[in-house]
Write the structure tokens for this entry.
Amino acid sequence: MLHRKPIIVIFFSFLMLLVSVLELAGSEKESKWVGPEPIESGQIAFSQIEPKAIEPKPIGSEWIELETRYTVIRYHSVETLKQFHQSIHFGNGWWATSTSFDQLSVEENRKISQMKIDAIFKRVQEILDMESKFKKVIINLYPDKKKLESAYKNTYKTQCPFKAWYDFKTNTISLNADDCSEGMFAHEIAHSVIDNFLKIRPPKNTAEILARYVDTHLK
């Protein structure tokens, strides 16, 4: 039996084609988009961005790296990883909640974070019907809003308008570990999956629609 893709994927494939045609028609009149757009009233404050940028630099100390099946997590202290773990509630196992973090060893806590992240990544692939082998996405975890915004400003030379973002050129997601959720994290993972799965990257508005669909249908 032929594999039948979910209706939502077929619909958004058509939508992607339509938006591509419209953007192409106006490309001669519009300047190329090279940076993040300002947030309008009521807009979700996390996004996919594509400015001219270099890989974000660590603030204050070297990165600690923790590799999972699908990602490379980078953080500056165990406390930051703990903040991220406590913000994410996802999965069916005993590791799904944050209640046991303080009772476990550092190594056990790292293992829990690995399982949560990979479970969310796998779920995002299932929702999008985009299951394939990808280059591991980098996840930069910052301990607070101030450090996140500082990293953004140092990289893109402008003020940060986002709570989280994904950069295609470096295949990197940046998050505030103290102000995150499983939906927000899945949203940024979706951008990475979409951009790396499709042979031609979709228009940013189409990718955003798909990413928002993922974060609202995660569970």
Helices lie at 7-25, 78-87, 106-128, 145-156, 182-197, 204-216. The two ends are 28 Å apart (CA to CA).
